[in-house]
Amino acid sequence: HIGSTYQGISAPTNGLFVDGNVGIGATTSSNKLDVWGNARVAGTLTVDSTITPTGQFLAIDGSKSAPSYSFASSGNGDNGMYLPSANALSFATAGNDVLTITAGGNVGIGTTSPEYQLTVKEGTAGKQIYFRQSLADNGWLLGTANADGALHFYRRGEGASPTDNERLTISAGGNVGIGLTTANSQLSISN
Predict the structure, then answer these.
(1) What's the CA gap between 161 and 99, in Å, rounded?
(2) pLDDT tens, residue by residue, 13-43
C-alpha cells in the first residue's frame, strides 16, 4: 500500500494499491498515470470514461511517414492516421498520403489540398474512378489524360483478363466523341 486510502484492504496478489497520482520517468504527475518516455502494453489496452462522456485517446500530430495512430505490429509503422494541420485529418499507406479531409470538410484522394468537396488526383494520366458492378469484374471507369486534358469514359469487360474499352471522350474544348478516343468536332460518333 502506498498512501492511506487503501490501508486495511488486501492488495491483489503480486499487485499494489496507490493512493494518488503516479509518475514514471517524471518528477511530478498531474494524472493518475504519467509516463515520460516509451511505454508498452503487451495485452489489451482499454480506454474509456465512466465519469464523464468526454473521454479521449490523445496522440501527437504525427506525419505521413510516422502516423499518430499506426499499425506497427507487422512492420507497417508508416500506415495510419495523422493530423497534417489544424482540424484536418489524413490517412497514409506506405508513407504516402492517400486520403485527406480538410478543416472545411473537403475530401482529397491522392491530394492533400482538395479544392472541392471531393477531389481525386492521380500523379499520371489514367483511370481514376471505377464503378464496379456487383459480383463481376466489369463496370465503368472514369479518368483524365494529362496530355490532352480530356475526360474519358471506359467500359471494363469481363473475364480473366478484362480490357477497358473507351466509349466516350469529352475534349478540353468541349467536343464529344462517342466510340472514339479523340473528339475532333462538336459531336463525333463511330460504330
Answers:
(1) 29
(2) 877 777 788 888 888 888 888 888 888 877 7
Residue 112's closest CA among 104, 121, 130? 121
Q: How is 114-174 classified by DSSP, letter by letter?
A: -SSSEEE--SSSEEEEEEEPTTSS-EEEEEE-TTT--EEEEEE--SSS--EEEEEEE-TTS
Distances from the Cα of 152 to the Cα of 1, 77, 95, angstroms? 73, 37, 30
Mean pLDDT comparison of 45-54, 80-89, 122-131, highest-scoring range:
80-89
**Whole-angstrom Cα distance, residue 87 to residue 68?**
15
Angstrom CA distances, 105 to 37, 45, 98, 156, stand at 35, 31, 16, 32
- Is 70:78 a contact under the CB 8 Å cutoff? yes
Its pTM surpasses 0.70: no
Q: What is the Cα 100 distance to its own chain's centre?
A: 7
